Amino acid sequence: MAAGFAAEFLTRAKEQAPVLVQRVKSYCPGACADGTGPGGPSEGTGLRGGAGTEMSNFQNYTEEGGYAETSLTNGARLERQGSSVEVDEFGDKGQEKIDEWQAGWNVTNAIQGMFIVSLPYSVQQGGYWGIFALVFVAYICCHTGKILVECLYEYNDKGELIRVRDSYVSIAKVCLGSKWGGRSVHFAQVTELLMTCILYIVLCGDLMVGSFPDSPIDQRSWIMIFTMILLPCAFLRDLRSVSMLSFWCTMAHLFINVIILGYCLLCAGDWGWGKVSWSINMDKFPVTMGIVVFSYTSQIFLPSLEGSMIDRSKFHCMLNWSHIAAAMFKAIFAWLCFLTWTDETQEVITNNLPTRGFKIVINLILVVKALFSYPLPYFAAAALLEHQYFRERPKTLFPSCYAIDGELRVWGLAARVGLVIFTMLLAVSIPYFALLMGLIGSFTGTMLSFIWPCYFHMKLKWGQIETSQICWEVFIIVFGGISGIIGIFTSFAGLVEAYHLPMPPIPVLNEA
């Protein structure tokens, strides 16, 4: 009987093997090389040519729905954490197409950037649930990234898939209305970008205080010093001058991550296995969930990235593997770092390094990396604000901040300097790295990465998606909404506690 069962099993296995092999192959890196991966439409499937890049012009729309040229972003080399893609306005004017490996490099650097140094803190507050969150949120963000890009496409009368939208904002205008849709996403994008700038400055202050704890210069003073160094960002017309330095700083950061992991492995004999628990600190874990969500936010630029790919059919494959790599590295990095320092794990893990000289060298490299990372979100936020409010009347509320010759007017330059000072003032006012990152992740992170992509996808593709997928996306919306609200409340409560301020009293209704 056993022999018969084994023979039948082998026969069925042989029949299913080709299907299984093909299925596995479609998700392997080789799929990105031969075009067999499960991805979006390619250039040869009826796509409209000249798909633009969202981060290159930051939604330069005219009131009629077209695209407006701005000298601010013309020819700018806009990348996030080390990309090197030459971008231009929507269309093909001077735009350099990228392959799936370059696109994967962009996504990987966006979701494995500077803020990975705070992830061991999530394991300290959530134990194994914190590690699970690093993997689970990666899976959700990978899914929402795919469905957000699907919202860019519609079938025409011939059954061809056409790219009819070019950005997150254009999707929002269709789903939320031309007035409030664009404004809502625009507000979330500007908030996310400016808060990223603030986090870079706060991180610099944290690293310097951790390196020189006995120095008479406190964290807020370091923040002001570094802001003075960043003031020349107001004069930037493009990012070519910092792109190569940013690339090498990114490589140095990867090297630092390897060094930290190497040190953790050397301490394997002293790892605190019993310190990783299944319990959750409910006062702190929602904040760490916000940190995790913030670390995976890449939806802002995914429509532009997909539009700039040579073969867009490989987008899904690229996104799968970049998020798999990020989830594995983040989970292992956070877990090993916590096993090494256990309850002494700090918000910025490099401050746990034992040797002062070693810690200073590592932290100074990270400070330089943060300073060279600041111009990109600052430049993007400035361009978004200029387009939204400073494009001559009656298109916008204020006149253009550019003169006829294309140079910034004096008051326009002053406004840019004021934007740098604004980020400094907020950083000085809220110099709490983990709480600030958790607050932003719980607010804009959940909206941009969880709620809006699923809502937009269901609204635009309701008759084309299965019931199981609808249930999954409804779950993501509910999960994102609940975790976001709790995260905002706990982050705010943490800030109140940090400032030693009394919580507002709860009103008590008098009984009649």
From TrEMBL:
Domain named Amino acid transporter transmembrane: residues: 98-490
Main subcellular location of this protein, as a coarse class: membrane
GO biological processes: gamma-aminobutyric acid import; neurotransmitter transport
Membrane topology listed for this record: Multi-pass membrane protein
Pfam family for this entry, one: Aa_trans
GO molecular function annotations of the record: gamma-aminobutyric acid:proton antiporter activity; glycine transmembrane transporter activity; L-amino acid transmembrane transporter activity
Catalytic activity from the UniProt record: 4-aminobutanoate(out) + n H(+)(in) = 4-aminobutanoate(in) + n H(+)(out); beta-alanine(out) + n H(+)(in) = beta-alanine(in) + n H(+)(out); glycine(out) + n H(+)(in) = glycine(in) + n H(+)(out)
Compartments, as annotated in UniProt: Cytoplasmic vesicle membrane; Presynapse
Keyword field contains Nucleotide-binding: no
Spans traversing the lipid bilayer: 128-149, 193-213, 219-236, 248-273, 317-341, 361-385, 439-458, 470-495
Keywords on record: Cell projection, Cytoplasmic vesicle, Membrane, Neurotransmitter transport, Synapse, Transmembrane, Transmembrane helix, Transport
Annotated stretches, region: Disordered: 33-55
One cellular component (GO) term of this entry: vacuolar membrane
InterPro entries noted in UniProt: AA_transpt_TM
Biased composition annotated in UniProt, kind: Gly residues: 36-52
Family the UniProt entry places it in: Belongs to the amino acid/polyamine transporter 2 family.
Reported function: Antiporter that exchanges vesicular protons for cytosolic 4-aminobutanoate or to a lesser extend glycine, thus allowing their secretion from nerve terminals. The transport is equally dependent on the chemical and electrical components of the proton gradient. May also transport beta-alanine. Acidification of GABAergic synaptic vesicles is a prerequisite for 4-aminobutanoate uptake.
Name the record gives this protein: Vesicular inhibitory amino acid transporter
Source species: Varroa destructor
